[in-house]
Amino acid sequence: MPLLKQRIVIVVIALGLIGALFVVGSALWPPFGPPPRDITDVIPPSGGPPAGENSTGMPLKLPPGFSISIFAKDLPGARVMRFDSFGNLWLSRTSEGAVTLLEIDRERGTVRNQSDVFRDLEKPHGLAFDPQKALLLYIAEEQRVWRVTTYSDDPGEEVLQLPSGDGHFTRTIAFGPDNKLYISVGSSCNVCRESDERRASILRYDPAFAKATAGKPEAEIFARGLRNAVFFTWDAARRMWATEMGRDWLGDDLPPDEVNVVEQGRNYGWPICYGKNIHDPEFDKNVYVRNPCEEPHEAASFIDIPAHSAPLGLAFVPAVSDWPEDYWYDLLVAYHGSWNRSSPTGYKVVRHKFDAAGRYEGVEDFITGWLVPSSVGGLTPSGALGRPVDIIVQPGGVVYLSDDKAGVIYKITVNRKP
After folding, report:
1. Which residue ranges form the domains of the chain, and what is each CATH number?
2. Omega before 296 within 30 of 0, i.e. cis
3. Torsional sign, CA 337, 59, 27, 407
4. Is the dihedral of CA 130, 136, 139, 140 positive or negative?
5. Which helix (H) or strand (E) holds 5?
6. Which positions fall inside the Pyrroloquinoline quinone-dependent pyranose dehydrogenase beta-propeller domain (predicted)?
7. What is the DSSP string of 111-136?
8. Are 139 and 130 in contact (CB under 8 A)?
9. CA atoms of 203 and 197, how far apart (whole Å)
10. Prior bond of 271 cis (ω within 30°)
11. Rounded to 5 degrees, what are φ and ψ at 213?
12. Integer angstrom CA distances of residue 382 from 315, 370, 376, 403
């Protein structure tokens, strides 16, 4: 073959190889491939994480020694999570009016099926299983609490009517150490004097008393002055802890959101006080001889959180060997994120640190990365990839976290040392 023809053939072959490499590279290397259409395009199927800390497809960051993955997806409006006695997970999807059952493969620890068991509900939020009857599920809609025996043909029955209408509509429920049902009911407004004392409070209902009297007694007010204490839990000492969102329209930095230790009969200040017994003269124009927010009239917050962070789910880390000892007794809190601040805040999970004696030691970020620059520049809520909501911490070094914007449940695990 003449030398010129040989060179032409070599050039053609080389160009062909370069083209092939470009096509393969486009598929494997994102800068050359098409951008994902939406958040679900970068979410892998349900299951545990591969090697590495983050397999979500989102730019999430968490401390060394932890991994995060997508446990379940295609769950828009994912809010409150509760495991039943079979190890399956029940999930309220408030914006969708549904309660969804995620059936878990026990051997693999993955979701094998998910389906809406209850539909067409009125803003369902709180879920709680009766500690005395493992399959009896209580469901809180905006206007009522009802209960139903799961895995049966039970039509369910209403146990409580709740105030509804304007304002905050989530109703969170949980059984306390006393086996009584606690219900949080947010305010009907941003800041006002409530005509119904059940608003801006935490209620307590005793199912055992209702059964003994064969009636439907009203719930009692356990604590008041809580503008919107959406989530609450108990520590090992049986103390109730609740997150609370402060009022709007006092600027970017006021008032603080809060974490409160909630005690029976106490008033936590709203609408005239916030934070560490600070009076709100913008709303309350009355003149006082002494600060109306001082103890014992109003209870101060335990922890002040940056304004508009919107703290929601909270859970304590148990003192067990599956968890790093440095995390024992700490409180993980989901900051849902601001909608009304010039520079967004929140959109993360934080770690509030405590020692074994319950002394507060400070705060640091645990998971960040949901808030990313938007297409128009800067950080805006519209650019957020997700908004964390509820947290379940398990002794086995596992955390489940719901996200009502991305419509997923994350699984965070403590990495095992070889």
Report:
1. 50-414 (2.120.10.30)
2. yes
3. negative
4. negative
5. helix 3-28
6. 61-413
7. EEEEEEEE-S-SS---EEE-TTSTTE
8. no
9. 10
10. yes
11. -95, 0
12. 28, 11, 10, 15
| Distance (Å, whole) CA 250 – CA 280 | 10
Buried residues in 196-218 as b, exposed as e (16+ CB within 10 A): eebbbbbbbbbbeeeeeeeeeee
Q: Residues 198-201: contacts with CB within 8 Å, 24+ apart? A: 198/162, 198/163, 199/163, 199/167, 200/224, 200/225, 200/226, 200/227, 200/228, 200/270, 200/271, 201/225, 201/226
The continuous run of DSSP H or E covering 171 comes out as strand 171-175
Take residue 43 and report the two structure tokens written for it. Answer: 């979410």
**In sequence order, which residues have a C-beta less than 8 Å from that of residue 367 and are 6 or more positions away?**
60, 61, 62, 68, 348, 349, 388, 401, 412
Taking the C-alpha atoms of residue 10 and residue 310, their distance in angstroms, rounded to an integer, is 64
pLDDT for the residue 30: 31
User: Which tens digits make up the pLDDT trace of 107-117?
Assistant: 999 999 999 99
Give this prediction's pTM.
0.86
In this structure, the number of other CB atoms found within 10 A of the CB of residue 172 comes to: 26
Tokens of 58: 């989102």
* DSSP assignment of 216-252: -PPPEEEEE--TT---EEE-TT--EEEEEPPPSSS-S
If pLDDT is split at 50, 70 and 90, which confidence band does 33 have?
Answer: very low
